[in-house]
Design a protein that fits this description.
The structure is a single chain. The protein is an all-alpha fold. It has one domain: Heme Oxygenase, Chain A, CATH 1.20.910. The protein is built from ten helices and no strands.
């Protein structure tokens, strides 16, 4: 897949995800706590993913330095989500099987497909944070939820990450872009399933 086509298709998918996520009941504390718990569960693996990718990239690969830099940026982010869970008294919230499948799939993509394919997962989450994060943060604050440090950082301080990942995809081969896009599509499908389960929890608990 050529770069221009990739950018158009990937951006369209992120926009599609934002529309889906915007329909969900973020003002429901059970939903928010469930989302926060699932997020914390997969964010714990971010640094490991990046280290694995960096180890598998050849020294001359055009994205080698970017992965090294990203490792530094993402270090410690799981502590923010952990603290938010404590603040919301949501440390015992159930982790779904689909959430585990979401992050476990990345070990497959990195080990068995390519290190660069992981950018599909990153692009999806960074795009969601950049495009929908500010709206979500506003809704969560208006609902009175105080445990939102993780969300605030990604909605206000890390919004350039989406642009940076898109720019990095311009530097890879057509084959690598195909792999990145395939991972993005699979990750989006799993993420929507996670969100739907969060919504079910909110509905069941309220019933």
């Amino acid at each position: 897949m050529q770069s221009r086509e990739f950018n158009q298709k990937a951006t369209a998918k992120v926009d599609e995800l934002c529309k889906v996520v915007n329909t969900l009941p973020w003002e429901n504390v059970r939903f928010y706590n469930s989302w926060l718990a699932q997020t914390n569960d997969f964010v714990k693996h971010t640094s490991v993913f990046l280290l694995m990718c960096n180890e598998r990239l050849a020294a001359e690969h055009p994205l080698k330095k970017q992965f090294e830099h990203h490792i530094e940026e993402e270090s410690g982010h799981e502590k923010m989500s952990q603290n938010d869970l404590k603040f919301m008294h949501a440390e015992g919230v159930e982790i779904f099987q689909v959430t585990k499948a979401f992050w476990k799939a990345q070990y497959y993509w990195i080990r068995d497909v390519s290190a660069v394919s992981h950018l599909g997962y990153s692009l999806l989450l960074e795009g969601l944070a950049a495009k929908f994060g500010p709206i979500l943060l506003k809704r969560v604050k208006e609902a009175g939820f105080k445990g939102c440090t993780f969300l605030k950082v990604h909605a206000e301080e890390d919004v350039d990450h989406f642009r940076d990942v898109l720019a990095s995809v311009d530097k890879v081969t057509d084959k690598e872009r195909d792999e990145i896009y395939a991972n993005l599509i699979e990750s989006m499908d799993l993420y929507i399933k996670i969100m739907n389960e969060c919504a079910q929890v909110a509905h069941q608990k309220a019933a």
